[in-house]
Design brief:
By secondary structure, this protein is α+β, with helices and mostly antiparallel strands. It is built from 3 helices and 8 strands. It holds the Pfam family Rep_fac-A_C. This is DDIAS protein. InterPro entries: DDIAS, NA-bd_OB-fold, Rep_factor-A_C.
Length: 130
Amino acid sequence: MNSVQGLLAASVISIQNSCFIYPACQNCFSRLILDSRRFNCLKCGCTGEAKDASYRYRLSLKIADTNDLFDITVFGSCLDPFFGVTAENLQRYIQDLNQLSGETNTESSTRALVQAVETCFIGKRFIFGV
């Protein structure tokens, strides 16, 4: 699954999701189920305290080369250079920002992040390993 079969030069047409960071199982990288105090991985059964959950990037894109449109998802630390921090640190910054501003509704910080990601990616050409 991690081996690159080929390279594709394509432009980003749109961002397909607004949730770029997810709590990830350290064993299998599946999305964790979080409640206020615990996490649970439905795939491998890993459990722990919610405060110890790790986070990972997941960016779903619609891209186009000269002939075709593709839906792709880019995972993990290869996105660190674009965001400037690890997913773990970005999640921490967002939580701290929401706490400092007294935000109970995280919609405004999510909207700002989506806008920044769209500005960074849409209309830009990248080489994707597929």
